[in-house]
């Protein structure tokens, strides 16, 4: 079965509103082991989101270092985002590319959902932009190229990211780009989408004007990021519609 077929199989609409509907019923790649939180030694916090936190963690048996995303079920349910979390896990677990943050597996208990992700030791592009005074042109070009390569890969699988921004561009061991946070991603092989989502400073004209959108909204966000890494400006705030 091709990657596209796998994504199509696991990404259909599911209107189930029970709290455990945020957990995929079909085991994803890397999820064959019955993980539990005691399998990990927890390290420092790497980030904080609306529904939980991301921690550096070490799998006790192998010593392998990962990023462990922990979300609270009650908060997911209260926001009616069970389907969104389910879709994030199902889609990202089938995406394997050098410029995409890997999702290795998932598990849950009575209160929390745990997602096991690739650990990107050099943080994210947003922090990098704040730290440096100037990117060399070849470095700026590499960041833009690698983001574009990651986007090209998911777009060929009919997946749109829909929340591309420097905070969601992680940097691996050699500062290589790793696109992350697929919480707003969607599998859309044919129809255009209507949902208003993303981060304001990187929203495309289609999104702001409330019309249907497709993968080109990711291209717009990439253009905004390219402007930032080339000119080291915070956001494209001068653009109006």
From TrEMBL:
Residues 1-18 have a biased composition (Basic and acidic residues). One of its GO terms (molecular function) is protein serine/threonine kinase activity. The active site is at 163 (proton acceptor). Residues 40-241 form the Protein kinase domain. SMART domains: S_TKc. ATP binds at residues 50, 69, 167-168, 181. Keywords: ATP-binding, Kinase, Nucleotide-binding, Serine/threonine-protein kinase, Transferase. It catalyses: L-threonyl-[protein] + ATP = O-phospho-L-threonyl-[protein] + ADP + H(+); L-seryl-[protein] + ATP = O-phospho-L-seryl-[protein] + ADP + H(+). There is a cross-link at residue 165 (Glycyl lysine isopeptide (Lys-Gly) (interchain with G-Cter in SUMO2)). This is Aurora kinase. It comes from Oikopleura dioica (Tunicate).
